[in-house]
């Protein structure tokens, strides 16, 4: 009757023992596979790391596999299946309700915000901020030389220009085409911020032997040799000057309606910047050669180039605009330091400079940036689950190069981010400037940076956190540009006073009422611009700058006086003018070319 017990290998597995056995078999199999792959590919060294990795992976896969089998076994019961389906239905209902509520809340909050601010004159549509079209035959931006910039189409996502010859011609229309050599390979111009002036001798060395430009048959003065090199572009300058006089409007055909907004191409900006530098170099060489009338024509062409993008409601356009304008203001300084401008020319320059309202342009650019930014988020919202929002936002070129991903963000969250971005614009970026009072408020701008830094990354603010930090310093750059314009106006009036009286006045009050009804105020504190004469008979004209402290006109430098050395966050924003005009040797070279700070 007594039977011997069955072997463990013949005994059936039941209960926990069975699942434990399957767990061991699955873990062992995965361990062997991972270990084998690691040994073959030599992905992990030393061997101890491979063992640990294989053990962790095998245990994780075994746990997931056994739990999956247990769950399937549990579902095999009709009672359990009904419970599961009921739970799934409840969960799906809650998810649908969550999406519906979030979408309703987000849209309602955004629509209320829009109605409130539209009643105050704000615009939230691309059509509302885009500049009106102008007649093509009166459009400076469509002169034959500039027209190829926007003569392109898209083929399979790639941009293809139709007039490649015209585009190449424009791309080579530059003053700084690099020579095929290592020394003297850069063209360095003076700068308003640094208080420096042009060195014509260094310019001549840049062009000498540079095969991109014609060479003089017989070397002349530095200015003459520079003008020979730039003679390559005489026909292009004739066309641009003719367009400046005959085409009073400027509208580059930017496709503002393109979606998403960050895919809008702006190829004209690089050319505006390059043409501005070319015009400046030509004008300064003409000033040095004693051709002040021709130099003034080139100066006004420089102004026309920067003015051509004045009405474009994009932040990058505004930044390029003020950068190009700074170059032209340097041309004004170069004429002043040479005492080259006549009283009539100075009066004309002062009248033009008084028309430049960069603070108002800043606000228009920020409103356009807000509108295009929120419209871009609305585009992503309308894409639904197909939206590659993080790919679009993260790409430097704005093309959303990330692989397609499933977007589970409720549409209401896009609305809430649009609302957060718009509120930040209204509360800080637009409130930092009062164009009617000609004022900028650094504290309001600094508060914006602090609020963005403290802002947590949450569903309602994630895009604001990603997109807004870069906007904080734009108002500082716009304020600095407006100060430079104001200083240039006063400098023209000071030179007119010098021409009439033989010297600069002791105070700016002496300029009124003959040259000014009212001296421009410092945009930082509302007081008149600071002015003092220097020991050599020149003067320093300045704003107290972003730190709101009067540093007696001293410029703040970073670590050294390098090309990027000026620190606009500290020190004063100045316009320095030496007392002695730049003098020339018998050969026409510079005897003095920089103002020592």
Q: What percent of residues adopt helix (DSSP H or I)?
A: 40-55%
Q: Which regions have little confidence, pLDDT < 50, spanning 5+ residues?
A: 394-405, 583-597
Distance N to C terminus: 116 Å
Strand arrangement across the biggest beta sheet: 5-6-9
User: Total number of β-strand segments?
Assistant: 9
Number of helices: 18
Derived structural class: mainly alpha
Indicate the overall shape: elongated
User: Whole-number average pLDDT?
Assistant: 85
What is the rounded Rg? 34 Å
Features:
mainly alpha; 597 residues
Task: Provide structural commentary.
The protein is mostly helical. It is 52% helix and 6% strand. It has 18 helices and 9 strands. Helix 12 (343-354) packs antiparallel against helix 18 (474-501). The chain is elongated and about 110 Å long. Mean pLDDT is 85; it is low at 394-405 and 583-597.
Tell me the layout of helices and strands.
Blueprint: H1 16-41, H2 47-75, H3 78-118, H4 126-129, E1 152-155, E2 158-161, H5 164-171, H6 200-207, H7 222-230, H8 234-246, H9 268-288, H10 292-307, H11 315-337, H12 343-354, H13 358-383, H14 389-394, H15 411-429, E3 433-434, E4 439-440, H16 442-454, H17 462-467, H18 474-501, E5 530-533, E6 539-543, E7 555-557, E8 566-571, E9 573-577
Antiparallel strand pairs: 1-2, 3-4, 5-6, 6-9, 7-8
Helix pairs in contact: 1-2, 3-15, 6-7, 7-9, 9-10, 9-11, 10-11, 11-13, 11-18, 12-18, 13-15, 15-16
């Amino acid at each position: 009757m007594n039977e011997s017990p069955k072997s463990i290998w013949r005994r059936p597995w039941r209960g926990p023992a069975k699942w434990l056995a399957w767990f061991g078999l699955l873990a062992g199999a995965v361990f062997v596979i991972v270990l084998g792959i690691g040994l073959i590919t030599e992905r992990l060294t030393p061997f101890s790391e491979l063992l640990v990795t294989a053990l962790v992976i095998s245990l994780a896969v075994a746990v997931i596999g056994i739990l999956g089998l247990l769950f399937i076994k549990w579902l095999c019961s009709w009672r359990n299946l009904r419970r599961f389906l009921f739970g799934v239905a409840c969960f799906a209902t809650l998810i649908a309700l969550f999406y519906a509520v979030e979408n309703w809340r987000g849209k309602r909050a955004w629509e209320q915000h829009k109605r409130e601010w539209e009643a105050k004159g704000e615009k939230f549509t691309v059509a509302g901020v885009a500049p009106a079209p102008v007649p093509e035959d009166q459009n400076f931006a469509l002169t034959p030389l500039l027209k190829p910039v926007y003569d392109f189409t898209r083929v399979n996502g790639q941009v293809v220009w139709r007039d490649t010859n015209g585009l190449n011609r424009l791309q080579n229309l530059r003053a700084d085409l690099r020579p095929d050599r290592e020394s003297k390979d850069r063209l360095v111009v003076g700068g308003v911020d640094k208080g420096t002036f042009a060195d014509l001798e260094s310019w001549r060395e840049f062009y000498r032997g540079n095969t991109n430009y014609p060479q003089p048959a017989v070397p002349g003065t530095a200015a003459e040799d520079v003008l020979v090199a730039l003679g390559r572009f005489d026909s292009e300058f004739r066309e641009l000057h003719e367009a400046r006089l005959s085409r009073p409007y400027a509208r580059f055909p930017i496709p503002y309606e393109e979606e998403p907004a960050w895919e809008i191409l702006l190829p004209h900006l690089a050319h505006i910047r390059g043409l501005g530098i070319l015009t400046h170099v030509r004008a300064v060489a003409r000033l040095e050669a004693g051709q002040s009338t021709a130099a003034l024509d080139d100066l006004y062409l420089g102004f026309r180039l920067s003015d051509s993008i004045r009405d474009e409601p994009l932040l990058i356009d505004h930044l390029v605009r003020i950068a190009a304008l700074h170059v032209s203001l340097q041309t004004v300084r170069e004429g002043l330091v040479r005492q080259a401008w006549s009283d009539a020319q100075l009066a004309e320059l002062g009248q033009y400079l008084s028309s430049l309202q960069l603070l108002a342009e800043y606000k228009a650019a920020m409103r356009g940036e807000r509108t295009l930014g929120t419209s871009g988020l609305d585009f992503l919202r309308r894409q639904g689950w197909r939206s590659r929002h993080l790919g679009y936002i993260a790409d430097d070129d704005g093309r959303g190069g990330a692989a397609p991903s499933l977007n589970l963000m409720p549409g209401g969250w896009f609305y809430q981010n649009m609302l957060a971005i718009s509120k930040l614009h209204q509360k800080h970026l637009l409130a930092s400037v009062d164009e009617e009072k000609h004022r900028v408020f650094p504290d309001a701008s600094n508060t914006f940076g602090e609020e963005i830094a403290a802002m947590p990354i949450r569903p309602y603010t994630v895009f604001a956190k990603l997109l807004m930090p870069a906007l904080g310093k734009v108002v500082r750059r716009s304020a600095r540009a407006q100060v430079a314009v104001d200083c240039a106006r006063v400098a023209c009036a000071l030179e007119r006073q010098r021409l009439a009286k033989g010297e600069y006045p002791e105070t700016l009050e002496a300029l009124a009422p003959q040259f000014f009804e009212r001296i421009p105020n410092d945009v930082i504190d509302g007081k008149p611009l600071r002015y003092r004469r220097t020991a050599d008979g020149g003067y320093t004209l300045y704003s107290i700058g972003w730190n709101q402290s009067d540093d007696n006109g001293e410029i703040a430098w970073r670590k050294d006086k390098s090309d990027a050395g000026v620190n606009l966050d500290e020190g004063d924003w100045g316009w320095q003018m030496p007392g002695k005009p730049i003098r020339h040797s018998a050969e026409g070279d510079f005897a003095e070319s920089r103002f020592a700070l």
